[in-house]
Write a structure and sequence with these properties.
The structure holds two protein chains of two kinds. By secondary structure, chain A is an alpha/beta fold. In chain A, 34% of the residues lie in helices and 21% in strands. Chain A has two domains: 169 residues, 3-Layer(aba) Sandwich (Rossmann fold); 62 residues. In chain A, the strands form two sheets. Chain A has a six-stranded mixed beta sheet, sandwiched between helices. A three-stranded antiparallel beta sheet of chain A has the order 2-1-4, covered by helices on one side. The radius of gyration of chain A is 18 Å and the shape is globular. Chain A starts with 6 loop residues before the first helix and ends in an 11-residue tail after the last helix. Chain B is mainly α. Chain B has a single domain, classed as MetI-like fold (Orthogonal Bundle). In chain B, helix 4 crosses helix 12. Chain B is flat, with a radius of gyration of 27 Å. The chains are: A alpha/beta, B mainly alpha.
Chain lengths: 273, 288
């Protein structure tokens, strides 16, 4: 599952050399007083959040806290009922957000390479389209599966194809809606390090929604907890990258966030997957 | 040597080597599964049984003529050109009825699947007409259109219409909403969404409709040709009945069976060509 060390090629394909370029690739996001109502039900009750360009933010919370709704607003699949959502520093930034879903959502009737090409969006007929698809597939370690049908891939491979599809347009903002939730533990760890590497190389802004606090800490610069439609906790994760799993500092942070999450929950409800 | 060790050496050998008959059955079973002739075993067995019953005189030729009499009848009809002409006429009617009825049904199924307004406007009407047995319209159709080609075309097209319509509509409506949402979020236009997501997603269901429609197509056409026609296989059978030519009647029925098989095989090949991505339709000989 882990990508074998053609890593250097892959980084070369994607990396922008300087950190300044990295900051320029990502886009900042500003949310002020963002609300979303479904009839009587107020799911988001005023979210204020500033996300700096090129950062990796994880959003955690219990089921039904509104985190997935927030991600749908961020990725443009849904519109807010009130408040403001702005990308970039105000200039006419043309941000095409990309979203990775919980399920791979590959077209079963298109070969892997054509599924990735879907991610080119309006650039589908660009002269370098095929090349970009090939390098995105190489980036997720699936170059040799280009001509395969999705039906023959494993769950982890499908999600990697979905990642390649999300990355092929070189988005400035990537939204991730629990994309690793359905994978087995080992595949998950492999995917997490792949995500981290791709993010380090490409420098986009990433927002990850997850149930798994451990995953949030493994990946994010900052963990935001949402409770009853509001930001309840905002913790910086200042750990060196690439991150190793199971460091004492990560464990301490995880315990702290978990304590906040669980405090009102009956003890036997398993909300952490 | 004690009896216990004797048993111990005996038992594994029993487990490892199944009795010869079981082994034979298993190999035979595997052979049956692999052979391309297997589907034809039952038809040929029936033919052999028929020939044997006729040959021994247990089957009266007035009830069912022997196979060779049918072959003779076929040969003479081939020689005077009547058979080819009749098959051509029936085939042309079937195809044109299928194209007209199936084509309209496909377009209306798409329209109603994609547009709630179109569905509200037309679906109730279609469902009401669908529940009229289409053969009950024959007297009316004869009064309106006589026994010319229009009557047959109308009945066949009407019969083909409903299975294609219902399954196209169902196919479009049951396309995975997650894929449609994905397509939208990746900036597909409405047309792209249709061509790349909705149509391929609906295709397996559409093919189910087409295969049903082919069955209805022959049924309707045969009845129409039997009742009101001056050419075609159905007419040939009706005429033969009047002259008590049982062999020709049986020949006509066998030709219908063969034509039905040809139509079904054509659709299967089409399915394989267009649904290669689908594990259920992949050609077992080319997939891993």
């Amino acid at each position: 599952m882990t990508v074998k060390p053609a890593d250097r090629d892959f980084d070369a394909l994607f990396a922008d050399p300087s950190t300044r370029a990295r900051a320029a690739r990502g886009v900042s996001i500003r949310l002020s007083g963002l609300t979303r109502r479904f009839g009587e039900l107020e799911v988001l009750r005023g979210i204020d959040l500033d996300i700096a360009a090129g950062r990796f933010v994880a959003i955690v919370g219990r089921s039904g806290c509104g985190k997935s709704t927030l991600l749908r607003l961020l990725s443009g699949l849904d519109r807010p009922s009130g408040g403001e959502l702005a990308f970039g520093a105000g200039e006419d930034d043309d941000v095409v957000p990309r979203l990775m879903f919980q399920e791979p959502r590959l077209l079963p009737w298109a070969r892997v390479v054509d599924n990735v090409a879907v991610g080119l969006g309006r650039d589908r007929d660009a002269p370098d389209g095929r090349l970009r698809v090939a390098s995105a597939l190489a980036a997720v370690g699936l170059a040799e599966k280009a001509e395969a049908w999705p039906a023959v891939l494993s769950g982890g491979q499908k999600q990697r194809v979905a990642l390649a599809r999300a990355l092929v347009s070189r988005p400035r903002f990537l939204a991730l809606d629990e994309p690793l939730g359905a994978l087995d533990a080992l595949t998950r760890i492999g995917m997490q390090s792949l995500l981290e590497r791709v993010w380090l190389a490409q420098g986009f802004t990433a927002v990850l929604v997850t149930h798994d606090v451990g995953e949030a800490i493994a990946l994010a610069d900052r963990v935001v907890m949402i409770e009853e439609g509001r930001v309840a906790l905002d913790v910086a994760v200042d750990l060196p990258r690439p991150r190793r799993r199971g460091s004492a500092e990560a464990a301490r942070l995880e315990a702290e966030i978990l304590r906040h999450l669980v405090h009102e929950e009956p003890p036997d409800v398993g909300w952490v997957i | 040597m004690t009896s216990a060790t004797g048993l111990a050496t005996l038992v594994p050998s029993i487990a490892a080597e199944p009795p010869r008959t079981a082994r034979f059955l298993r190999t035979a079973g595997r052979g049956l599964l692999a052979s391309r002739l297997t589907p034809w075993l039952v038809p040929f067995a029936l033919l052999a049984l028929w020939a044997a019953a006729s040959g021994t005189g247990r089957l009266s030729p007035q009830f069912l003529p022997p196979p060779w009499a049918i072959a003779e009848a076929a040969w003479s009809k081939i020689l005077d050109g009547e058979l080819a002409a009749n098959i051509a006429v029936s085939f042309r009617r079937a195809i044109s009825g299928f194209l007209v009825g199936g084509g309209i049904a496909f377009l209306l199924g798409l329209a109603n699947g994609l547009s709630r307004l179109s569905e509200r406007l037309t679906d109730t009407t279609v469902q009401m007409i669908r529940n009229i047995p289409n053969l009950s319209l024959i007297p009316l159709v004869i009064l309106w259109l006589g026994i010319g080609e229009e009557a047959k075309l109308f009945l066949t097209a009407l019969g083909v219409f409903f299975p294609v319509y219902v399954n196209t509509f169902h196919g479009v409506r049951t396309v995975d909403a997650g894929l449609v949402e994905m397509g939208r979020s990746y900036g597909m236009t409405r047309f792209e969404l249709f061509r790349r997501v909705i149509l391929p997603g609906a295709l397996p269901s559409i093919f189910v409709g087409v295969r049903f429609a082919l069955g209805v197509m022959w049924l309707t056409l045969i009845v129409a040709e039997t009742i009101a026609a001056s050419s075609g296989i159905g007419h040939m059978a009706t005429e033969a009945r009047e002259f008590l030519q049982v062999d020709v009647v049986v020949l006509a029925i066998l030709i219908y069976a063969a034509l039905g098989k040809v139509a079904d095989t054509t659709v299967r090949l089409l399915e394989r060509a267009t649904l290669a991505w689908h594990p259920a339709f992949a050609d077992p000989r080319t997939s891993k």
